[in-house]
Specification:
253 residues, two-stranded antiparallel sheet, 6 strands, single chain, 5 helices, binds heme C, alpha+beta
Length: 253
């Protein structure tokens, strides 16, 4: 009898849990990368002619994409030269001009290209294979006066010398670990869980990745992920315990 009551109570509780309204799963729509009129970030389309509710269009197009950019079906104007890369006396994997998907990120985060500098605007026509870097739409935006990234920490600028290096070959990096005095790759850096591919993505166990063996913005960030700061690995609130950094660097042992 007592057992039955407990079982009934447990079932009742389970029922309540099942009935409780499920928290709305967060997606890209709830992030700062929703630049459409439904965006909730500081910067998004507010009005103008045919303002759009499309989210993906600010980065991707189903047709007429720029295949020179290493981000799939890319819809934005890009800048490929004129950046100042990171450098230091202890750096071994000397990065040059940005490559890979980092160029896609920098098409907004360098601040030189308008958010609406798109190859293919929503709707019929509206295509250009050389979109103006000052923008191609008749939309107005909130949070920016010139449709470009406003000054602040999210605008990396063309000078990347004050940012973690990108676009360098992981295997070329050298560093001593916390316990070793030797400056080579294996002492200073951890191996991903799979063999490093020179043609595709290679993942670390926690979701960080190398692309064609290179560190890119997308090694640490996934532009669609609603996790804090779009980080690929994030427990609770971002770079907990510096786990992002310790994925690659042997500064823990
Ligand atoms: C702010 C720019 C941005 C927006 C907005 C965006 N993407 Fe992406 N997307 C990227 C970039 C950059 C990559 C390449 C990522 C990489 O190499 O890790 C990518 C890659 C992808 C990929 C292939 C690899 C992957 O990560 O899954 C798919 C599929 C994709 N995007 C779909 C979408 C869809 C669907 C939307 C709209 C709901 C969208 N994206 C919105 C920037 C964006
Ligand atoms: C279409 C333009 C666009 C592209 C492309 C883009 N971003 Fe962003 N990103 C934004 C805007 C706008 C913000 C919000 C800036 C602000 O409010 O200061 C933002 C914010 C961020 C933030 C801060 C998020 C937060 O919660 O504070 C990160 C991190 C970020 N982007 C990384 C990336 C990376 C990495 C890529 C490439 C994979 C990328 N972005 C591509 C427009 C873009
Ligand atoms: C090695 C890992 C790594 C790489 C590579 C990287 N980031 Fe980040 N990024 C981070 C971490 C970790 C944070 C969170 C820092 C913090 O908590 O302030 C961050 C924060 C940001 C922010 C938000 C800054 C703020 O305080 O609001 C932006 C924007 C951003 N990254 C863009 C980029 C872009 C664009 C690239 C490529 C040019 C890039 N990141 C490359 C690890 C990385
Ligand atoms: C995806 C792997 C990866 C992640 C994640 C990563 N790094 Fe790095 N980091 C590198 C590589 C590769 C280099 C280049 C080292 C070299 O060539 O000597 C580097 C360079 C550096 C340098 C400059 C070294 C020098 O000699 O000038 C510092 C400092 C650094 N990382 C700190 C961090 C911090 C802090 C974090 C976390 C926010 C982080 N890294 C995350 C791979 C990574």
């Amino acid at each position: 009898m007592r057992k039955l009551k407990i079982a009934a109570a447990v079932l009742g509780l389970l029922g309540l849990v099942a009935m409780a309204p499920r928290a709305q799963a967060a997606g890209i729509a709830d992030t700062k990368h929703n630049l459409s009129t439904t965006g909730t970030g500081t910067i998004h389309v507010s009005g103008g002619t045919n303002p759009t509710t499309e989210i993906c269009v600010f980065c991707h197009t189903p047709h007429g994409a720029d295949t020179a950019v290493e981000a799939p079906l890319w819809n934005r104007a890009v800048t490929t030269t004129g950046y100042t890369p990171y450098s230091s006396p202890s750096l071994d994997s000397i990065p040059g001009q940005p490559t890979g998907a980092s160029i896609a990120c920098l098409s907004c985060h360098a601040g030189d290209i308008a958010f609406d500098a798109l190859r293919n605007l929503p709707g019929s026509g509206g295509f250009s294979d050389s979109p103006s870097k000052d923008g191609t739409s008749a939309w107005t935006f909130v949070g920016t006066s010139d449709k470009k990234m406003p000054d602040g920490i999210t605008k990396l600028g063309m000078d990347l010398s004050n940012d973690h290096p990108i676009s360098m070959l992981y295997a070329a990096a050298k560093s001593p670990s916390s316990t070793s005095g030797v400056n080579d790759h294996d002492t200073g850096f951890k191996a991903p869980s799979e063999a490093i591919s020179s043609t595709g993505d290679t993942y670390f166990a926690n979701g960080l990745k190398l692309s064609k063996g290179y560190v890119q913005c997308t090694s640490c960030h996934d532009p669609h992920r609603s996790a804090p700061l779009f980080l690929r690995h994030s427990d609770n609130n971002g770079n907990v315990g510096s786990q992002i950094c310790l994925t690659c660097h042997k500064k823990d042992a």
